[in-house]
Design brief:
Length: about 120
């Protein structure tokens, strides 16, 4: 149900931009990413550096970073990270690209935890 609603919102956004010229951006791969983890119940947040292929944990869930990309020549620019979030050995709660400048565009839908990408790491 939530995936259908998310797809509808993304489609509506794309249709709104249909008249706008879209330019492809050159990107470079990062060595890892800085992710912000938030527990909405306790209010605790932490920034965690995760290497590509690495994992971290938030509550009972594992957050695996598969890729991080940033605008070529601008490592401090907008980050795009592919993450998989879910219980170890279970079905993923979230799997997809998160965009640093628009965390709500494709976000983890969980009542207690939030995860978003802050930036890519280049070393």
């Amino acid at each position: 149900m939530m995936r259908a609603a998310r797809a509808a919102v993304l489609s509506a956004g794309l249709m709104a931009c249909a008249g706008t010229a879209v330019v492809a951006q050159d990107v470079s791969p990062g060595q890892g990413a800085v992710l912000r983890l938030l527990d909405k119940i306790t209010g605790q947040s932490q920034d965690v550096a995760v290497p590509v292929g690495g994992t971290t944990e938030i509550g009972p869930y594992r957050v695996a970073l598969r890729a991080c990309r940033y605008p070529t020549g601008n490592p401090a620019g907008d980050a795009f990270a592919y993450v998989v979030i879910g219980p170890e050995g279970g079905d993923a709660l979230f799997q997809g690209w998160m965009i640093g400048s628009s965390p709500a565009l494709n976000a983890l839908d969980h009542p207690r935890y939030d995860v978003w990408v802050i930036r890519c790491k280049t070393s």
